[in-house]
Design a protein that fits this description.
Blueprint (H helix, E strand, L loop, with lengths): L17 E3 L10 E19 L5 E21 L8 E4 L4 H18 L6 E7 L9 H16 L2 E3 L1 H12 L12 E4 L4 E5 L7 E7 L18 H20 L2 H19 L4 H10 L4 E4 L5 E6 L7 H14 L4 E10 L2 E3 L5 E4 L3 E6 L28
Parallel strand pairs: 4-5
Antiparallel strand pairs: 1-6, 2-3, 3-5, 7-8, 9-11, 9-12, 10-11, 12-15, 13-14
Helix pairs in contact: 1-2, 1-3, 2-3, 4-5
């Protein structure tokens, strides 16, 4: 028998489906804009138990600040709601998301649903497991809502995103680390207020070739698998509670090893060896892509910048291209006391900041082909 899962405190009361006002200022009547970030793969992914003891696929992503998608939606009153023109034309998931969002937002706004024009721009590389399609989809949903003068709650955005692309990353949520059921669009557990600080040396495996997730073998989780995922979940919860970067990296490494049973990256052992030889705390990967990271604990007393430099050189020596070196920074917003003196933190959160020696920049787009990204990328030319 699998033990009953940890049951987190009761979630707060659900948010309304929509509120007045969009995420951006409409450029004209019936025009809306929306933005969404991406991520840097996963810290943990597997099959877990929900509050009812049922199995549920879930993941914990590593947030990445900077790259993202921007959408602009222009309503065309009098056209069918499914008549959405998308630019670039290959963003089919975003087009489906726009049509779904039009129906829901029009009903909330008390207006007749209408199609329109959707324009997308993004600097998230495609096919590397960084949530490029989810970023497009969420930006689209937010743009449609903005065009109707609405701002949808995260739960409503998640539901539409899953409907549009069958699975979604939790990019519609705030920066708190959550275990997210990507196929159901719901939070299984809020793990804590913020991730421990980490320094991440980003890289790509497999030469950066996009991963066809539909071609990956399907492996059913056994009871033993679920028990192990629940154990890693508990360890990750403890790492977040104590701000323990090394324990978090150990969980990410264990999850990455389990992901190798499907992904089978030939450079994975080299990645782990580089992490060990340069004093890193562990590694993480995208479980549905090629992006990966070597995780350093910034609290380690040794010269961090020297170790990061050695790591980047060692990765290049193994033929593993590096992309960017960034940090997850835990910071707090001080709240003034009645006397005007700042007191302890009131709103911890996490963001990421790129270090000066991070990424190599690609100076232009490659010619679009079916198997290559068709958007600007901050990854090196591969």
């Amino acid at each position: 028998m699998i033990p009953a899962p940890h049951r987190p405190p009761a979630p707060p009361a659900p948010e309304p489906a929509a509120a007045p006002g969009g995420d951006g200022t409409p450029g004209s009547a019936g025009t809306g804009v929306g933005h969404a970030p991406c991520h840097h793969g996963e810290l943990l992914q597997g099959v877990f138990l929900d509050a009812h003891g049922d199995r549920c696929a879930g993941l914990v992503t590593l947030p990445l600040d900077g790259p993202g998608s921007r959408a602009e939606f222009v309503r065309r009153p009098g056209t069918p709601p499914g008549a959405v023109t998308v630019t670039p034309a290959d963003r089919g998931k975003a087009g489906r998301a726009a049509a779904l969002a039009v129906v829901e937002c029009a009903a909330l706004a008390g207006l007749p649903p209408a199609g329109g024009e959707l324009r997308l721009t993004s600097d998230v590389p495609m096919g590397l497991g960084m949530g490029s399609s989810t970023s497009d989809v969420i930006a689209t949903i937010r743009a449609v809502a903005d065009a109707y003068g609405l701002r949808l709650a995260p739960g409503a955005v998640a539901r539409l995103a899953v409907h549009a692309e069958r699975a979604s990353d939790p990019l519609m949520l705030d920066a708190r680390p959550v275990l997210f059921a990507q196929r159901e669009g719901r939070v299984l557990e809020v793990l804590g207020p913020a991730l421990p600080p980490l320094v991440v040396v980003g890289c790509v495996l497999g030469g950066g070739a996009p991963v066809d997730t539909l071609a990956l073998p399907v492996r059913e989780a056994t009871d033993t698998d679920v028990r192990e995922y629940e154990r890693l979940r508990a360890l990750l919860r403890g790492a977040v509670a104590r701000g323990d970067a090394r324990l978090l990296a150990q969980v990410a490494t264990a999850s990455a090893r389990r992901g190798q049973r499907v992904l089978r990256h030939p450079e994975f052992d080299d990645l782990v060896a580089v992490a060990r030889h340069t004093g890193a705390a562990g590694v993480q990967i995208a479980h549905s892509g090629a992006v990966a990271g070597v995780l350093f604990d910034p609290a380690t007393p040794d010269d961090l910048r020297h170790r990061v430099h050695r790591c980047r050189n060692a990765l290049h020596g193994h033929g593993i291209p590096t992309t960017r070196t960034f940090t997850t920074r835990t910071f707090t917003t001080p709240a003034p006391n009645p006397g005007g003196t700042p007191t302890a933190a009131s709103a911890p959160s996490v963001t990421s900041k790129e270090l000066p020696d991070g990424p190599a920049h690609r100076r232009g787009d490659r010619t679009a082909r079916p198997d290559t990204p068709r958007r600007p990328s901050r990854l090196p030319a591969l």
